[in-house]
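tool=predict chain=A
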Amino acid sequence: MAVDEVFQKYCTARRIAAFDPDSPYSNALHRLLSNHFEQQAAQIETEFPKISRLRFGFYECNRFGAAADLWEGTAVIRMSAAVPTMLANFFTACLSHDNGFLPPGRDILPRYAGTIGFNETTILADLFNHGQLIEHSSLNVMRVTALVLACCGFIFLHEFVHIRNGHVDLFQSQLGLLPMEEMKTVAAPKLSTLDFQTMEWDADNIAFILNTALAIRNMAGQELSFCDGEDLISMFHVYCVSLYLMFKLMELMEPKNIQARSHPHPVLRTLFLMEKLRVLAAPMGIDTLPMEFDVDVVGAGEATWALVLGFPLFDPSRVLTLMDEQAEYGPVILKHWITLRERLTPLNRGTSDLTRFLDE
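tool=predict ok
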């Protein structure tokens, strides 16, 4: 299957190279994801009259990245071809540890023979691995595939929300007809870093709502109604930890100063998502979540990160401190949403009003 003609023309106009998911340089994940997102794009076209044409495609790049764009009457969601490869290699490494994805304090083991580890300074290049998947015979390939599909599905819907909620329109009104790229925030007189962080919060939260049930159903390999309650909670946990770990990877490409970055801290991004937990869990047949589910997610993410990067074992006592430190910045973003929403409302391409938050 050749690259979609419209997406090919778009890439030529944007001076990037379209990546063919059937090329000799691709892997099975590229075709799987392309088919999945092309179907979602077609469904979006039928449901959103203000998004008359939507195209998805991979572009050639050796870095983690994605973008939302509006070009010549076409909405475009593009993803670096490196993303699924890097995520697959990272989750392969996580699962090579017996206690990957487990909260700290539960018999956490250091690296041992047979596990896969990386160095913090070279991890992004090592995960790209010249575009090749890391083989590890003891792993369940289907489990890694499900995690990659869950995270890439989140990215796709995150970019869709940037288009649907007017973020790209606002961005282009200030910066010209440029794509809104995840890891390349461009300064603008009328768009602050707080504006970007608030739009990222908005995109994260709606993507989480739209993606969660589908992601967990793919992880289960069957309809959720056939799943045991404890198994559902376990998959819900692994899904949330996977997103946290993806946020950690993206964190490596952000400035250290929170005032200069486009995304909130991974802990705060996750805490925002955790506010939706019980609302999303009930329709999936999860009646009760553990009292400290959010603590377990952040703790498991930090513990797994430490294992894979060879850091000292993560101290469980640090989890609440880490969460408290980042939670302090949360109200700043939520309060700013009230102001930003006024600017975005005329640009809304959806069929319902933008989210209201706090007592307005």
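The chain has one domain: 84-347. Residues 84-347 form one domain.
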